[in-house]
Amino acid sequence: RDARAREPxxxxxxxxxxxxxxxxxxxxxxxxxxxxxxxxxxxxxxxxxxxxxxSKEKKADGPVSARLEGDAExxxxxxxxxxxxxxxxxxxxxxxxxxxxxxxxIRDHQVLIIEGETGSGKTTxxxxxxxxxxxxxxxxxxxxxxxxxxAAMSVAARVAEELAVKLGxxxxxxxxxxxxxxxxxxxxxxxxxxxxxxxxSEPDLGSYSVMxxxxxxxxxxxxxxxxxxxxxxxxxxxxxxxxxxxATLDAEKFADFFDGAPIFRIPGRRYPVDIYYTKAxxxxxxxxxxxxxxxxxxxxxxxxxxxxxxGQEEIETCQELxxxxxxxxxxxxxxxxxxxxxxxxxxxMQAKIFEPTPPGARKVILATNIAETSLTIDGIIxxxxxxxxxxxxxxxxxxxxxxxxxxxxxxxxxxxxxxAGRVAAGKCFRLYxxxxxxxxxxxxAVPEIQRVNLGSxxxxxxxxxxxxxxxxxxxxxPPQETLMLALEQLYALGGLNxxxxxxxxxxxxxxxxxxPQLSKMIIASEKYHCSEEVVTxxxxxxxNNSVFYRPKDKxxxxxxxxxxxxxxxxxHLVLLNVYEQWAETDFSTQWCYExxxxxxxxxxxxxxxxxxxxxxERIEVPLVSANKDDNTAIRKxxxxxxxxxxxxxxxxGGYQTVKQSQTVHIHPNSCLFEDLxxxxxxFELVFTTKxxxxxxxxxxxxxxxxxxxxxxxxxxxxxxxxxxxxKGRGKSKVELER
Length: 738
Ligand code: CDP
Ligand code: MG
Known about the structure:
8-stranded mixed sheet; 7-stranded mixed sheet; 28 helices; 22 strands; globular; binds cytidine-5'-diphosphate; binds magnesium ion
């Protein structure tokens, strides 16, 4: 035993300076046996022999990548080979043997709940089954919603490939600011938010024969609202088939909600997964991830690793650390291919995670919880789960909305672990203790509808003519407080009148696929004659991650570059400045590179901007440019949309929100960090170490009365020192005051 254990350990000592200690606590049973002999991806001797025999087969093993052998391989053309490969792949999916039964069940029932483990083929196969069974006759479409943008795109691409059609033709997708469909599209994947928008133009979903509400277990805000809407439609469109598809757990609940609809269960197939916990809590889970990846890489047989992180920033940090560490280790270790996946990653990069791992190498995928259930990546044997996800949280009492890194639920943790058992027996390393799992994790996550601001959804429902929101058919109703606050805020914005009815402004606001505040800001820009600039700002704000690139090894340069973009007035104007300078270079990549700007984010901002600009035409807002020397108009338009995100400087030199008197802070990255303006408007509040306001702009309190006289009472804006101050003042003013 000793001898066997020592060999990898030696190697291990050689390369790693620190380690994370794990204890195995339990096994998640699978329904499949894992026969160790069938693995050609191990390190052991037995497996090496096997490797020789199979040397031509470069891909990971398992039923999914079954290939042809021998002569037949050479005879078939690449195209036929591909088709054959796809067919074999489809046949291997758990849903495959149920095709006929499933179609029959769909013919027999109007509403059907489909439950099957992640990776069983629900999302990619069921629409194809329907397509081949006549559900697209008479030019009808099959719709399938996805909670995530990335999933909608990637799944559509996959299905187009399986059907050997060009993406955007028979198979397409539609996500916010991007429509990849055509007249010919029969299978349409879309985000749940996009389907909600479609109700505005096609309230009976008349062009669809089947609507699949997929990933229902995710319980996103939009999916939850869709439940109520499609349930209603199914009553008067008897020919519409409704499928509610979910990974696990909630099937009964969905069935009850849909008046006792039958449940179709696809039996899962999964290999067992060993679960490990850390011996002690980890102080820095990013670092623990990096160490654990390397630990697996040098001690464990080949097989890909999936790491769950909370967002792009963490993923990039982790990627940099891993690159640095592996570079240092050089040829002492096997090749480690590091691949990120998150919502804003461009699609050509996303596709990479599905490419097979080259022989002798190992893939490590750094993912957000998109890989929890929405995307299935083959070949994963190891999962590293720090146990966190970013979650929206909203306090209706204070009106504070924040994105907080929160511990995941037990249900999520188990979904994550399950990702390791798809192709063979796997291992899941949880970067928290067994005690923590048992005592600190909730059983299930709180549905989004109960913890977010409902402004945009309420506006949308109102525009669909649903006036009595309190009696809307919710699977789980949102807190009444949150609903009331949303109504109040929409009233303050002028989108609703005092009877709660949609106003003309409200209707125009609902035409733009952005939050009510942003849409109000855009519409207000008409009055202030600065729509060109405001649309750019809205687009830059919608690219919800920083456009500034800050690699660790060049942090100082990056910060200098960022500061070079600073202009008076606030971060919105800095964003505008970045965009305008970039536009002047004719959208140059090189320019981005030289100025530490993320080209990808900029490109997306440009797309969003183009889309918004064309929508403005529809709501008849002319595109006009502001006076270059005075940014007051722009800041007033921002104020018109975001007036309830106002904070003021306190005597003590800190900030408090005006309405709720919550203590908040200027983010250190803000161009106003050292300025301390008296009144600011923030775009969002993020809680990291403190409540930080992100993207702030300096305003004058009198504007608040100008744009929202009904919202701000005189006294709230009382400010004895609120005189117009000279430009360019710095800290001195505050110091004087103290
Ligand atoms: O929806 P469900 O989780 O039941 O499964 P699915 O997403 O339909 O995935 C079925 C199979 O398609 C898996 O083996 C995936 O790896 C594969 N797939 C893929 O290769 N590329 C994609 N973009 C999406 C799925
Ligand atoms: Mg799916």
